Amino acid sequence: MRYTLKDYQASKTAELIRSLRRATRDLEGDASDYWSVALSAPTGAGKTVIASAVIETLFDGGGEFAEDPLATVLWVTDDPALNEQTKRNMNQASSTLGPSRLKTIDASFDQEIFEPRRVYFLNIQKLARSNPLSRSNTNAREYSLWQTIANTIKANGAHFYVVIDEAHRGMKSESDRATIVSRIINGQDGLNPPAPIVWGISATPERFNQAIARWTVQRTNKMITVPLEAVRGSGLLKDKIVLDNPAAGQVEGDTSFIRAGVEQTLQFEDDWRTYAGEQNEPPVVPAMVVQVPNKPSEAEMSEILGTIFGAWDDLHDYNVVNTFGEHTAISVNGWTIAYMAPQDIQDDPQVRVVLCKDAISTGWDCPRAEVLVSLRPAVEYTYIAQMIGRMVRTPLARKIATNQTLNDVHCYLPRFNKSQVQGIVDRFSEGRSDEPPVEIVVDPVTIERNTDVDPAVFDLLEALPTYVVPGKLYRTQVSRLHSLATLLTGDNIVEGAIAQVKAQLTAVLQAQRERLESDGTFQRDLERVRHLRIERSYALLAAETLEDLPGEASYEVDRDDNNIEDLYRVAKRKLPEGVATNYWDSVISAQGEDDYDPIEAKAITAVLALHSEVVEAVESAAEQAVRSWLREHQRSISKLSDAKKALYEPIKRETRSAEQTELILPTSRTVSDSPQKWGKHVLATEDGQYPLPIKGWELQVLECELKDTDLVAWYRNPVGGTSALRIAYRGSQFDKSMYPDFVMFHNTDAGIRPSIIDPHGFFLADATVKLKGLAQYAEKHGDAYARIDAVAEVKGKLLALDLKSEAVRAELADVDDNEVEAFFQKHAGDYA
User: Fold this and answer.
1) Which residue, of 170, 205, 228, is where some domain finishes?
2) Distance between CA atoms of residues 580 and 575, nearest Å
3) Which backbone phi and psi does 412 adopt, to 5 degrees?
4) Is residue 174 pLDDT above 50, yes or no?
């Protein structure tokens, strides 16, 4: 893959491959053991990237998976444009799925079977009864598409994967007649058998799953779901969608909102230019989408275009395009607005304004389209929500940690009132359809670094020890180390890093070999690898009695070279990134010219790889090397551009235990306004206030802290992201992150010092393990803080538990869930 997969993408890729391989094995054992696999991926999850990684691994192998030279994919949609966009995206994402392997089925297609290691893109209209491709025995065609499908299933069914993209479509109830998709999946008597393995992809797979269950062909069903939380944290989606609508009592103001949209687009352009200059990379060129009624009059279009051109200096006709269903240019009051296919917009930086109607197209993505002005009424909120959902991908496929307003999408809704806007907010927050998991902001305000706060506070905040917890591991630590070495070499931080890795891991394998040799284990295992023991027994045929037969016997034969090669291939999967090959090469070198035996060297390497403790020793050495390099070169890495730093983040998350990282305080962020406003926050509006709706005893804690005359600043710790203070704790199975609510900064005799103040509720299921995680953090990093207090309300009174106290931490280690409240009563002091 050309792209580095996000944690969840790699995890779901591996899960999909295992499911598809299992389906293949089942079908090889029983040709009627049909399978269905559904990938439920929220909008913006990168389903094409996941699919590309799966198909690339099916075809060519990778990591723990061997190649399948018979694998063939038929990719089915109802939209030719979507197929072409998917083809282009796969070609960009994959390092091996080039044009020769990605084939569009067109009018000239005529094959007996689909070739292995190819992806064939089919839009279902080509299988309509009126389409020549669905018929054979004509002068122009030997095989119909139905025959090609049938022949491929008969010849290669266990390795033939039918992918239904946007699988919620084409799955309607067939009370009248079967859909084309159902005929592909279920087969047709006398024409094509059922597709043995079907893989559906959708943000809303319920209809697909219901259809599979309803149809007569019985299948083993596997559901694979990409969690919303994983997509939220991936950096692939914008942080917020900002909605603006007329205030109560105001009449519609279409042209005013269009001008506001232009102004916001130009603001994005200016901010991107500044950011690109700071990072020394090409700027993003933002675009504005204007959603017009289905049948706008010429007067309406003239007013819309007149407002856009009037508000936007130096905008030309060629900077504005339409995606109307008529697929033709429009001419209005002297302006000629060309038609452009949706999939071409993203890559044409000249396009700055896009005119559309109810929607642009399913699967359309244009990450640089960052402003929407919708002139649709609220009753058409579905069209508007769908359009918003197409505009939430981040232009750089990562979050901007500094100017976080660049992580926003702005939507102007002049024909909505407040309650109607709330309908959009509810739709997204509840995930009612296929809306992406993005926060909605109404009444937005921008907060920036508070100029009233002592600059030393910002440095102190960014220096606080914060942790990254492991993602769902999918790569070996060896692969992790190899990726880090490649980055450090490319960024001129460590010279010859890859050569160092090679030497270090080869030395680990040699030490493990010597350990096994010391008790004879290695020699015995090598004999077992070199030789194959065969047991011989007899069956009664012509002999009169069993006693007439020879007794059971066994004997040994030398394994042939192909058998040793098979074991060596296993070794290369267990010791990836050239580790097995490097060791094999070292064995060859040690043999000397006269004793050169490459097969013997492969057998020796296989012996080591077949010992799990040897593989773990290599993994542990690789993990330790990663930690050492990240710690040693953290300062150099922090000086890199954001784009380069982002490449190190997946490597940090591939740890097997929590590791320390850096906190990045943003320079700017968009938040919802609130009647409750507070001073002294490190981020504030122009008037020095921080809007934060807060209640309960969290409110009491904040009010109490703000009364302290020594308080110079405070920080409301966000939940998630690089700007959060993250503290690791052990959950039921994995390391997780907790986010203490407040970091307070006070004047002390030792200067300005930070304190963690965390209101702590007993009612939460993980309250005890989080409290213990905070205590472990205090034990390790307590010297960095003046106070680390967990605050809880006990019998109407706020109590503060001093987690810098060694005695408190020692007793807390043995506290159970039902003992926490009593522990507070015994050890905590009066918070006030």
Assistant:
1) 228
2) 5
3) -110, 125
4) no
Residue by residue, DSSP assigns 796-812 as TEEEEEETT-HHHHHHH
What own/partner pairs with CB < 8 Å and gap ≥ 24 does 268-276 have?
A: 268/370, 268/371, 268/406, 271/403, 271/405, 271/406, 272/406, 274/403, 275/400, 275/402, 275/403, 275/406
Among residues 86, 123, 81, 118, which one has the least CA distance to residue 103? Answer: 118
* Alpha-carbon dihedral sign for residues 427, 430, 434, 437: positive
Q: Could you tell me if 639 and 749 lie in one domain?
A: no
- Cα–Cα distances (Å) from 379 to 290, 355, 423, in that order, read 18, 20, 11
Same domain flag for 171 and 31: yes
The answer for residues whose C-beta is within 8 angstroms of residue 443's C-beta and 6 or more apart is 672, 673
Whether residue 472 has pLDDT greater than 90: no
Residue identified by tokens 């990605």 is 102
Nearest to 386 by CA among 418, 424, 415, 439: 424
Q: How far apart are CA 377 and CA 65, in angstroms?
A: 52
- Which of the listed residues 653, 673, 694 is the one where a domain comes to its end? 653
What is the per-residue pLDDT across 508-519, written as a single tens digit (0 to 9) for each? 999 999 999 999
Selection from 492, 366, 39, 66 nearest residue 223 by Cα? 39
CB–CB of 322/339 below 8 Å?
A: yes
- SS3 of the chain: helix, strand, coil, percent, to 5: 40, 20, 40
Residues 731 and 802 in one domain: yes
If asked whether residues 339 and 258 sit together in one domain, one would say: yes
For 616-651, what is each residue's pLDDT tens digit? Answer: 999 999 999 999 999 899 889 989 998 898 899 888
pTM of the model: 0.77
H helices within 138-293, ranges in order? 145-156, 180-186, 206-214, 228-232, 254-279
More confident residue, 472 or 214: 214
For the record, the structure tokens of 582 come out as 């490097």
Can you list the alpha helix ranges (DSSP code H) found in 491-641?
Answer: 497-518, 521-530, 561-574, 579-591, 598-609, 612-632, 634-638
Per-position b or e across 137-175, b if 16+ CB within 10 A of its CB = eeeebebbbbbbbbbbbeebbbbbbbbbbbbbbbbeeee
Q: Record the tokens describing residue 255, joined without a space.
A: 């042209």
What are φ and ψ of residue 160, in 5° steps?
Answer: -110, 115
Whole-angstrom distance, CA of residue 652 vs CA of residue 149: 45
Q: Which two tokens stand for residue 670?
A: 């968009």
Q: What is the mean pLDDT of residues 771-775?
A: 93
Contacts for 530-533: CB closer than 8 Å, 24+ residues apart: 530/558, 530/559, 530/603, 531/556, 531/557, 531/558, 531/559, 532/556, 532/557, 532/558, 532/559, 532/563
Separation between Cα atoms, residue 325 and residue 824, nearest integer Å? 66
E strands, 334-382, are 335-339, 353-356, 369-374
- Which position has the token pair 């965390």? 758
How far is it, in rounded angstroms, from Cα 389 to Cα 704? 42
As a whole number of angstroms, the distance between CA 184 and CA 148 comes to: 12
Tokens representing residue 619 in the block: 């993994």
| Burial environment of residue 286 by CB neighbours within 10 A (0 to 12, 13 to 18, 19 or more) | buried
- CA 143 vs CA 132, 297, 541, 645: distances in Å: 11, 49, 51, 53
Domain of residue 634 covers 477-653
In this structure, the answer to whether residues 111 and 257 fall within a common structural domain is: no
Structural domain tally of the chain?
Answer: 4
Q: Under the phi-then-psi rule, with left for phi > 0, alpha for psi from -120 to 50, and beta for the rest, what region is 488? A: alpha
Cα–Cα distance, 744 to 81 (Å, whole number) = 54
776 in a structural domain: yes
Given a cut of 60, whether residue 431 has pLDDT beyond it is no
Distance linking the first and last C-alpha atoms of the chain = 57
- pLDDT tens digit string along 336-367? 999 998 888 988 999 999 999 877 766 677 89
